[in-house]
Amino acid sequence: MGEMTTAGFGFNEARDIQHAHTHPVLDRVLHVVHAHWHGVRSATACAPGLKLLIPHEEHLDGEAMRHVYGLITKFDVRKIVFQSYSDIADTLARDMKKRLGPDVDLYVVTHVTSAQFEHHFEMRMLSLIRNAYHLGVFKRIASVKPNFTSIVPEYWPETIINYMPNIGLEFDGMMFDPSAVFVPIENTWRKNLYTNILAACNTEGIERIYTVNWPSALETLADLSRLQLVGYKRGLDLLTTLGSVSAVLAVTLAECQPMTQLEAFALGTPALTGPLGLAEFASHELTRVCEVPHLDNPALISQYLKRIIDLRTSDPAALAEMIADYNQLRARLAEERYLMLLDL
Amino acid sequence: LVSLIAEQSPAILRVPKPHRKRENSQDVLARNHDMRSDVRSTATRMAARIYRASIGRLDFDINHILGSPEFKRFLAQTGRAITPLTPLFDVGYYLQRIPKSLQPQINPVLHFCLHGDDTGLAPTRLFHAEYVASVLRGDMSAAVDLVSLFVSLLENVEPPFISPHPLFEPEIWTASSGYTGPMNPAADFLATTNFAGKSFSRYFSTRLYAQCRPNVRHGTINPLLMYLQDCEAGIIEDVNPMLHALFYKNKYQLNMSDPLTHYIMEGAGHGFEPNPFASSELGLDVLTLSTFDLKQLFLDYISMPGREEQWAR
Questions:
Q1: Using a CB-CB distance cutoff of 8 angstroms, which residues of chain A are in contact with residue B244?
Q2: Which among B241, B284, B285 has the least Cβ separation from residue A70?
Q3: pTM for the complete prediction?
Q4: CA distance B298 to B301
Q5: pLDDT of B142 above 90
Q6: Which of A48, A308, B63, B161 is most open to solvent, judged by the fewest CB atoms within 10 Å of its CB?
């Protein structure tokens, strides 16, 4: 492979474009995303456009900076969207504005919720974004979290809708295990791993529970014999696992628009989450059956899980149609919002 | 250069011929006289072809041109004010490379026809003899007949057009400028003063060049000539988005003034990487780089998808 002058720097890597949507205008938008922030990277990978990967800790060296401007020129980029923010992104954005001037418009889309502010880094980044916005570096700043303008008033009032993966025929007609569920969440307070595992363990008919993290010490309270640790998965491995189970459990305490759910939906697998507060989908039937209102209630989550698994067994066509309709709506809204944000 | 010119064209340059030991042979003198006469006759004929192309009358018989008083007047002109003359012959550029004291005394066209092959002095920055030779004959090393290559270019006024330089593509220029006139499109490219919104190469980005040379933004300066002038002056600027000129020059320890032209003509063929990220982006490993002919792959990689003309808005 070629010499990398800056670790974490790259362009249009396979996993960032192979499941992206396409659009004649949005395909020319450059998304700048941090290579090691996997959730944001997954969300960005589904959007149409070019994908520039940058590191979040190490600044870009001269050759990498030169390459960025080469790519902007080669692909005639006029709109650049920073997906999330870092000190490196701030330096790059300011340099871009200085060098490219009015030829190119810059935007930021953040993927953070106020629940994450215990990490002060997030607030510092929002402050940097706000400063840059007032200096004219950014034309608009927006969020995938609804009503973020109540936290930072400069934010664009509309919510950016994440795209789900554009899955092709490679997963068409994939068989799934009706007695297996997948819990692809971290073991942190916010991600609510224990509650999800307990809910799965207590659900009738579930024989295999795949988890990426082990709920340590939970064996003192529950029978974990059906639990199988599969570790973190990325790319096709993750999609294959998501497509091979009857349902996905990701009922976390605070989220924006979790990509795990969208990846599962793209494969036709239902995925439970907590309430996401997206008004655009509030009345959709899939939201009603997949968003669990009480997050620390394993019995309620179990009830939702049982209902969705039963539906998938009893009337698979109805569930498939519901998911397909949701996916279509999401793809349409995602496209509309990006076009609005970017004035295209 | 002065001695070469002086030795080979004492009459035109009005420089006394250096004293040489004669061979005391009437035959040798006669033969030398005949040879000089032949050379001058061939050069005059070439000058007539340049004149004929300059007046846009390629349908005229060359003997008719040779006998015409207009051509004789043309040959009698000296210094910079030579008319009529094709834009492909840049008198100012040509004379700059002739010793100053001789500039007002010579007819640049005739001088080029007499000495171009020996001195290698091109009549314009845009004339890359090796490239034209490679296009016409498929052999770069055959660029010893500069004059006939140049005349072939001048007389090529119908598609498929010959380009004088790897960084100028006639089809792209005619498509973006709409030129349909009687000259080779390269002549129109050199004559125009309006480059706004026009493209002339899939490898040369005026947009990128404007980041370090803001004066080309206005579209009144020929960006390619300016770039070539920069190269002659030893200034290396990036004009191709994917070719990192300094990286390329330093990594492969190359001694040349124009990295982009060098890459197109040689570097890509050797499998040289245009930037530190190219192999990674193209999915190439060391074995592939050293095994396969990747010229076309690399040339495609450094070419632009054809939107450059929309830049100047």
A1: 63, 66-67, 70
A2: B241
A3: 0.85
A4: 5
A5: no
A6: B63
